[in-house]
Model the fold of this input.
Amino acid sequence: MPKFKGWDFCKFVNYENSDDIFLYELGTCACDPGYSYEHYTVNRCILHFIIKGKGCLVLDGHKYMVQEHQAFLIPENARAFYQADEQDPWEYVWFHIGGPKVTSILKEAGIDYDNPIFTPLACAKEIEDLAFDTLHNYERQYYCIGNIYKIFDYMVANSKDKVENTISSSLLYVKKVISFIQLKYPDPIKIESIAYACGLNRSYLTRLFKEATGYSLQEYLLIYRMKVATKLLLDTDLPVQVIAGKVGYSDAFTFTKAFKRHIGRSPSDYRRLEKKNQDRPSENSI
Done:
């Protein structure tokens, strides 16, 4: 198993360029006996892959025992407590992730709020090697996201609790909505037009999408537009006014207001500061 300096390795990366999966933070921890932690996540989840040792997870009053080569999920919008065993404390790799398809992918692997423990059918070495490979290459956004896809693929294919039933009609609607938004985001989309394209009632579709992804339709549309906008700001020299039009805004003022509310700074400041950061020498790789 690769070694890392110190008791706990952690990196904040905030990778959101993928359409489906976002990676915000990653790390590894060799816990002291009895070490415990409490988490509350909002619109994101955390996956812990147990490399060795054991411990317990408490989620909504339910206690789950977890051991080496298993994994446990802290779901979106959930409060969880977890603790290392006193005699054989666990060591784990963890990923703080989000995105519109994370929940549905995990459900395919049989992992959700009611069943937060992943148990592989075969040896877990492949998934653990991918996890450590991601840590070693944390500075490479697309490499990391690619590895998360591979990890998810392994989990779906090798889960003891894999969901074998065919894709539900509700999930098909959600996928249709995501495809519609990714195609039509430059246009002035209204929720009614999305519902009409799917042949569903607006309120029903809104609830369906929220339950499946953790995002409202408006939130996902905004997130997708902002993701495209940040890429255009960094990869092109297009004026803010032009970028606003390319991501569905009729004027630069409305776009700038939405961008600042979502990102925390104006498009111009974001472009200037991020390009400045890109020009700085990067940290040594682990």
